[in-house]
């Protein structure tokens, strides 16, 4: 195991960090207050190739398929702007799903994502089907060469901004996650209905809406991959997303530590900086130890993937540890800042609001713990099957 970075990785990390510090960090408060996806910022990201960094070169991407490199890039962006990092990750995930499409689908949908001209959305969650995907009720019936979709989806990132949405729906009556297919739905498809824009605790630099499908009609050629295997394919394709979610959390955790250290050096109480008090020193030391431990596990999971080693359980471990560590680091940072930490003029309250979502999306941390435990016990069950986990 060698974590020595190549010269290309070092240069990329430095350049991304410089860009994020210069172009994104000054806009964080504005992003948070406007509460919506910013095409201006997306075009900034596109100017240095970030939306398509993980995309295939033949479709305009940079072809960076190393999960470790992707992890470091996202961590560096998230250190300065969580929303931009999360939006880039969402774009990469949708590009990854589109790689199972045919050439016509890739040219039509994948290319615009790679060059930053468009964004897509992924619609799986329903009002009564979050972690319990087997309860999905959205259906798609094949009638005269078209799929007719009916149902509802909630918490869909970039809904309303996206040119198209990958919709998961049942195309057969098979039980569990069998019979769920992935379908490409253009934003102007008849029967495709946008819900209200949600007001959120954090991750405010994106647009989140519900979706409804009322006899939504799309061509049968918009089936993505094989019929009935959409969900399982998606889970296998997106397992690396848990490592990337860990990277988002790590970036914000590091930002919380950076801010806390600087504040502890400057804030005077009882005639000296609060950083001279042992209780504050202990909090800072614990934050640093926990963040570095989570970083090593996250990088290890990514390294395993890059070296074709079994990594699924480590992806769940990294996601769980890094996001829990980040949440604790954010809460401790607010405590160190005291009353100022509760104010929006200071950065740490935004960090606390942002990192909470990392414990929820890409599979809640409770689900991750179930996956880890069942893997350790060698059990076969719905969670292992649902999320595509196995020892290989």
Structure description:
With 392 residues, the protein is an alpha+beta fold. 49% of the residues lie in helices and 15% in strands. It is built from 13 helices and ten strands. The strands form three sheets. A four-stranded mixed β-sheet has the order 1-4-5-8. A hairpin with a 2-residue loop joins β9 and β10. The chain is globular, with a radius of gyration of 21 Å.
Secondary structure topology:
Elements: H1 7-24, H2 28-34, H3 39-47, H4 67-78, H5 82-98, H6 103-114, E1 120-123, E2 139-143, E3 146-157, E4 164-170, E5 180-186, E6 192-197, E7 208-219, E8 223-224, H7 230-238, H8 240-266, E9 268-269, E10 272-273, H9 278-306, H10 312-337, H11 348-355, H12 365-377, H13 382-386
Parallel strand pairs: 1-4
Antiparallel strand pairs: 2-3, 3-7, 4-5, 5-8, 6-7, 9-10
Helix pairs in contact: 1-4, 4-5, 4-8, 4-9, 5-6, 5-8, 8-9, 8-10, 8-11, 9-10, 10-11, 10-12
Into which percentage range does the β-strand content fall? Answer: 15-25%
Q: What structural category characterises the helix and strand content?
A: alpha+beta
CATH superfamily placement of the largest domain: Butyryl-CoA Dehydrogenase, subunit A, domain 3
Number of strands: 10
CATH topology title of the largest domain: Butyryl-CoA Dehydrogenase, subunit A, domain 3
**Strand order within the widest beta sheet:** 1-4-5-8
Ranges where pLDDT stays below 50 over 5 or more residues in a row are 382-386, 388-392
């Amino acid at each position: 195991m060698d974590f020595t970075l190549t010269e290309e990785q070092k240069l990329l990390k430095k350049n991304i960090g410089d860009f994020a510090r210069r172009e994104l960090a000054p806009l964080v408060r504005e992003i948070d207050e406007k509460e919506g996806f910013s095409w201006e910022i997306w075009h900034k990201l596109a100017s240095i190739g970030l939306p398509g960094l993980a995309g295939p070169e033949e479709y305009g991407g940079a072809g960076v398929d190393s999960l470790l490199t992707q992890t470091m890039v996202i961590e560096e962006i998230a250190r300065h702007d969580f929303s931009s990092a999360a939006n880039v990750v969402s774009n990469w995930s949708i590009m990854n799903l589109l790689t199972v499409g045919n050439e016509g689908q890739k040219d039509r949908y994948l290319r615009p994502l790679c060059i930053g001209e468009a964004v897509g959305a992924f619609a799986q969650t329903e009002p009564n089907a979050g972690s319990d995907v087997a309860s999905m009720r959205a259906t798609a019936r094949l009638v005269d060469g078209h799929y007719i979709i009916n149902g509802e989806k909630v918490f869909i990132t970039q809904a309303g901004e996206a040119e198209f949405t990958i919709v998961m729906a049942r195309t057969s009556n098979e039980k569990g996650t069998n019979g769920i297919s992935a379908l490409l739905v253009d934003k102007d498809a008849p029967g495709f209905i946008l819900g209200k824009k949600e007001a959120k605790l954090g991750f405010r630099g994106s647009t989140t809406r519900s979706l409804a499908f009322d006899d939504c009609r799309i061509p049968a050629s918009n089936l993505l991959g094989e019929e009935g295997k959409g969900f399982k394919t998606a889970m296998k394709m997106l397992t690396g997303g848990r490592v990337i979610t860990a990277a988002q959390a790590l970036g914000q955790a590091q930002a919380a530590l950076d801010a806390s250290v600087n504040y502890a050096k400057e804030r005077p109480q009882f005639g000296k900086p609060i950083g001279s008090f042992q209780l504050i020193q202990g909090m800072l030391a614990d934050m640093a130890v926990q963040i570095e431990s989570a970083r090593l596990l996250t990088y290890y999971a990514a390294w395993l993937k890059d070296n074709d080693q079994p990594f699924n359980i480590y992806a769940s471990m990294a996601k769980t540890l890094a996001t829990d560590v980040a949440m604790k680091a954010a809460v401790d940072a607010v405590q160190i800042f005291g009353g100022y930490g509760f104010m929006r003029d200071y950065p740490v309250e935004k960090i606390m609001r942002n990192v909470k979502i990392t414990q929820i999306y890409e599979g809640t941390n409770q689900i991750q713990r179930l996956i880890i435990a069942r893997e350790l016990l060698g059990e076969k069950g719905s969670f292992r099957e649902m999320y595509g986990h196995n020892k290989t």
